[in-house]
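tool_call: predict_structure(chain=1)
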Amino acid sequence: MAAVLAKPAHITALPAMPSQVWWGCHDSPLGPLLMGITGEGLCRLEFASGYGLDYDLGHWRNDWPGTRLIADSSCSAGLACQFRALSPDRWGGGALALYGTEFQLKVWKALLQIEPGSVMSYAEVAALVGKPQAAKAVGMAVDANPVSMLIPCHRVTGAGGKPGSWRWGEDRRRTLLAFECKAMKA
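tool_result:
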């Protein structure tokens, strides 16, 4: 079965940090996924670090000081099922609720244009957003991506296709890209 490309139906730029986020931790073929949801949509999707939930949620608290984090896996259970099949491109296309700068949001939207299984360099993404000299700033925006896989930061590489570093590990990046290539051919 071919992958059905489903980009987020709507990206809501949150004007301020969320006041509360419901979160859950779910199994996936690439390791535990942490998901955060606000009333506006999915706001966080990342792999657990392996250092424990206190460590991972500590980063969320640093990113969103004053936000109330509420443990409730039932809020993200349906979405988690879609990731168990390693099929983020088959996601139902619901809303993303992202807090970021105008530039970050522009970069994150540009990442959605990279075809599954393909890669683009930081410099190419910089050109795509109309800032050809801003490859380093693009790298920082990619690193700040709050919804890994849905906004496909794993498809961005260094110059000449060099993998560079990806915060979720090169093995995961290669697995995701290989899966996307296979799904596109099916």
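agent: The two ends are 5 Å apart (CA to CA). Proceeding to next step.
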